[in-house]
Model the fold of this input.
Amino acid sequence: MKPVVHYSAIEGRSIAYWGLLGTFGLFLLLGLGAVWVMEHNGHYVTGMNNQVIWGLPHVFAVFMIIAASGILNVASIASVFGKKMYKPLSRLSALMAVAFLAGGLMVLMLDLGRPDRLVIAATYLNPKSVFAWNILLYPGFFGAVAVYIWFMMERRMNKYSHQIGLFAFVWRLLLTTGTGSIFGFVVARNGYDASILAPMFIIMSFGFGLAIYILSLMATCRWTGRELGDSVLRQLKNLLGVFIAAMFYFIFVFHLTSLYGTENHGFENFILADGGMFTQLFWIGWVLIGLVLPIAIVYHPSMSKSRTWIGIASAMVIIGGLASMYVIIIGGQVYPMPLFPGFEVSSSFGDGTIASYSPSIWELGLGIGGIALALAMTTFAIKVLPFIPNSLSDELMDPHYKPAEDVVEADAAETNAA
Amino acid sequence: MSEQKIDQYRRDFFTKATTAAATGAIAPGVMLMSVGQAQARPLDEPVSNKNRWGLLVDSNKCSDGCNACVTACETENGWGSGSTDEQKSDPDQKAQWIRTVTLKNKLTGSEHQLPMMCQHCEEPPCTDVCPTGASFKRADGIVLVDKHICIGCRYCMMACPYKARSFIHEELNDQSPDVPRGKGTVESCTLCVHKIDRGDGTTACAEACKKDGHQAIMFGDLNDPNSEISITMKKHATTQIRADLNLNTGVRYRGI
Amino acid sequence: MADSVGPELKINRANGDKCVLPADEMRKDHMKHLKHQRDETMHDGIRTKQFSLKECINCHANKDEADKYIPVNAPGEFCQSCHAYTSVKLDCFECHATKPRDTAFHPIVTDKMKAFADVHDAPETKSMLDTIAKKDGAK
Done:
């Protein structure tokens, strides 16, 4: 007989639980305080200016939005690709996907020059704008995932969870493509004008999302005393390794294709060689911390068995992810735009020079506030609804994974036909 | 004479009278209004694509160190030195609708300068990306921000290849009645739309450049084959900045 | 209006005794007209004066003892007092000037004449007309 996975809401009555929720709440409040300062005074209190137009808030927002769709991957692996082991992991995955999207959007919206005009953003839509597409994609994502969660939790609806899971999966691909295209469509800037940005964002979303998921799952199971089997974690970390390798590949191709066009040599040289802080962030933050070290840990014969190291590797992927966003978003802006080929240009408006940007505490506060919102939402939701399985022990999760029955049948049908 | 009357005269004049004799019969002032514009437009008539307003900048005539166009724009539109606002913003945060850019030839070392502003593209990237449609192109080719529906997302600034747009980083109080501007929205050169609509037939920058005796900036109707700007562009080679992007700019340059 | 309840309005009657529509219509509908005008001016370049916000300000701004304009959105002033009373919040004056600029008033014809003279370097009337006539003939 197959053991059955049971879910339950966590108890959430301990001081530690309220302390955790309180901490997230506090950071959220600090974030909102920072917003108040920014919006009351105007953006002059930030480090953003007319050269570096999108600053730290966008680094956080874009990171969280693409991570959100990546977090949903765990659920998709179960529902779309039929991997049984991932099924018990699905609910938390869907929940966190919604929470991170909400956090990211909060940051994005509150950094607007006129957040009071949000209604306008929803009512006047310019069909040509990638940004407007995204404004439609976000609520769609919320809706699809909410229904997905409902179908997973409601026994009567269980049988449709596969379909809605598929729908949510397709939607998330669109969402990440849309987010990537926000930058990809900016033809004017050397750093962005690459159709490869959209697929690269999808791969990055896989990696960031899974890293966030692994960390959260480990923390939840540990703090609620629920078992998390070694082989479950091993599968997850192996998958993380695959995603990191894929990110590696894409970054390599990205810069290679970029180097192919002469007009991009200046920009590539800036990022890869003499961009000061950006070069450091690229090599140390993005490549070393975000890719090389975690992949080494994840495949290291002994480290990869340690939960602490798996946790550290996941955290590194997240830090590397933030660094990569900084390099892409800010680095793409500080580098001067090519207006007059063959000329050295100068002006009172920073033409021909590397722009400067030093983020303010308010922008950082807003970004962290967004993450706090996502974590607070998750922490709260798992207390009120049964998102977390009572146990994720190896025994329960069926370590000797066998293909699903219907797949076997399909195979049989094929052999019959042949 | 009342406004309405003048309009009426203008309309009548253009529909009926085209002979020199009729010209003489009408008050000089009325006639004069119609000349700056290729076609006088009554106040209540919408703009149309009969016109496409543009500028031709001759960088050979642009005099080194001269900043007259920038100052004139500041005064006319109430930014920079033309206003007491934006004291808290740092230099990188202050609005800049027009700027002079100095070009130094990498091979020969020769230097010259030219003014840069919104290039009033026919295919403006800013309007493509704007989520609300606040960035738009008027029928007569002027690219504007409808600040009433601008949410301050600044995607247009990211998309603009010319860095022509500015975001307002603080509260303002000293605006010109003709040029409303305010915190949290994006703005750029309007091609002095309020002057064009008024029938001035020129922009502040072109006016100032002419007054200083350089005549490096010419304003006119690119759709009118007989306008000075069209004739000049037919005679001389002109360039668009970032022509590779195929935006068909309304601001053209000579002598880059 | 005698029967109207509301704040005591400081109405500037220096430019005549009438608003652009009868006062009770204005009281009821000015926001509608302004918003309509806003879109027409912005997108179609329609510059009729009747419902132009700039013109409201030109006419409704009061002057202080020193003969200086007071912003229309200052406490107790025309637009503000009424909106404060009805607790309506406007963002218009974040951007729109709240008082006429002393230099803002150009008699319309002379402005055009000056503009013409600047552009075409032409002296006064007679020769200007000749130039125009010549241009017309050339077409």
Summary: Confidence is low (pLDDT under 50) at residues 1-38 of chain B.
